[in-house]
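Example 3.2
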Amino acid sequence: MNQKSRKVVLVTYPDSFAQEEAKSLVESAGRQSVRVFTQKYLNRSQYGMGPGKAEEIKEFLKGSGAEQVVVDERLTSRQIHNLEKLVGVQVVDRERLILDIFQSRATTTEAKLQIELAEVKYEMPRVRENARITSGNERPGKGGSGEYVVDVKFRELKRRMSFIKEKLDDAKKKRELYHQQRERDGMPVISLVGYTSSGKTTLFNLLTDEDRETSSSLFTTLSTTTRALKVGDTDALLTDTVGFISRLPTYMIDAFKSTLEESLAAEVVLLLIDASEDTQSIRIKYSTCLRVLEELKVDRSRMLVVFTKYDRVGSEEAVSDIARDLAVQNWIAVSSKTGYSIHKLRGIVSQRLAEKTAKKVVAGSG
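Structure, written as tokens:
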């Protein structure tokens, strides 16, 4: 069946941020949630959720037309197996849902390899667990070669992971050569980073006169795109990267590190935050972005917080309150829709690049 017509029941946490993000993930995966159930804890041993909630979902599913239950948390193979057995439909956890979205959005060879690597890392811990479930906690039968089937599959996944890593290493070496060439040419880099749907691609299009796809769906951009940009008297390069999301497992961040590493090399890192959202969402998204950037060891002195969608806020005072709440000192509010403060943003970036260049000259002559 076409994913776009698939109706699902969504199980998520009771707070509003978790619910809205989970709904967005479901929509971005081309599914339609016909009912949202909430549960304070989604890491209970048997079903992830409590048995009472699982029974409630089972009753709702009768005649609902829903074909899947999407659980907004990481579940073990056993929990998925137990829940599927009870409710009688396929169960998809948060990580599987994100991987499905990644698969549908990947366009470049490198992005596809990164997603395949994340897939393998998702599957590896589940291979042996699935084998135990289907064989009643005993090792599954042997194949034609006398080896256990689970061992063969596990080794195939390890071999596949090694192959993908080799391909990604090749891509990384090419990028490093490109970066060295760029440094020789004296081309500074400006990087756009931020939570998914924070307006990175819209700003990228405005600054570079591009027409890349923008959407309210999550993860519209999966690959890093770089374009030439004139900032004041300086020729620079602007990069647009994959958006961040809360509760993204480390192995998924690892899979995308090669594209996110563009941020490490950037002279200026513009961290975009949607200022039109509610306070709780802004706090969670900002702290999520900082955690990822810290994991990538991005120098904070290179960062400038850009509060986007100012046209929906309409008041510098309101944005000042947000900046104060987040303890952000270096910031600017812009609107890619109306062009508000875009000229000012260019000026700040130009000044920062000039300062970086001056430091390099001093360091070189010292």
